[in-house]
Sequence to fold (121 residues):
Amino acid sequence: MRYLLLALGWLSVALGVLGIFLPVLPTTPFLLLAAACFARSSPRFHHWLIHHPQLGPWIRDYLGGQGIPMKGKAWAIALMWASILFSCYLVPLFWARAFMLTSAVCVSLYILRQKTLRKGG
Fold:
């Protein structure tokens, strides 16, 4: 399980870094996932990520209770819904569609209820 979490953590770091440069990928959710994976698999990598000069602030803002940037919220919700709707199109089973849509609603509500980070203020 440790190696699976490490692999998922590094994949999430890579996608988070790509998200800095590509407007299609959200940075914050991937970095938060990486931090969660590293917290359960490698204290060294978790410390490295949290204290990284460029990547750390995204995670520290959220963990410190300052919130998620509006752009991060919007991208996370938009990409999640795009992937869920595409998955619903591909999966013909009603119960699977219902589960995916229910999950998407719950995650969207969770993200929307999180405090919005206001830069510079």
Remarks:
- The CA atoms of residues 81 and 117 lie 22 Å apart.
- DSSP finds six helices and two strands in the chain.
- Strands lie at 68-69, 116-117.
- The radius of gyration is 15 Å.
